[in-house]
Amino acid sequence: MHEIGIVRQLVRTVTDFAEANGVRDIREVVVDCGELSLVIPSYVEELYPVVAKDSILRDAKLTIHPVPGLAECEACDEVFNVIEHKGFCPNCGSFEKTVLSGKDFTIREIVVPNEE
User: What is the arrangement of strands in the sheet containing 79-81, beginning at the earlier edge strand?
Assistant: First the structure.
């Protein structure tokens, strides 16, 4: 389960950002999780509270946005969902493709409380 390393790095990255910018409270961390990233969102959700419990993120909500795994067929230029079509172009049946999106696991947003 490589997700534990990913969650540890997520917590470390956000904690380092908070320290470098004088942030003392974080409400939410929003991440993009690509369908082709080999990261299982439910594992990340399960591990996050355990890894974050002794950090500034202990009370921060984790929101995971799925990013579809899209590819462009090299034979006919059709753009299609790789998972939905099992890697084959739905237009011409070719397996040759260029992946356009869905391979990354990225921090999209760090939400901090409004200063009053």
Answer: 79-81, 70-73, 97-101
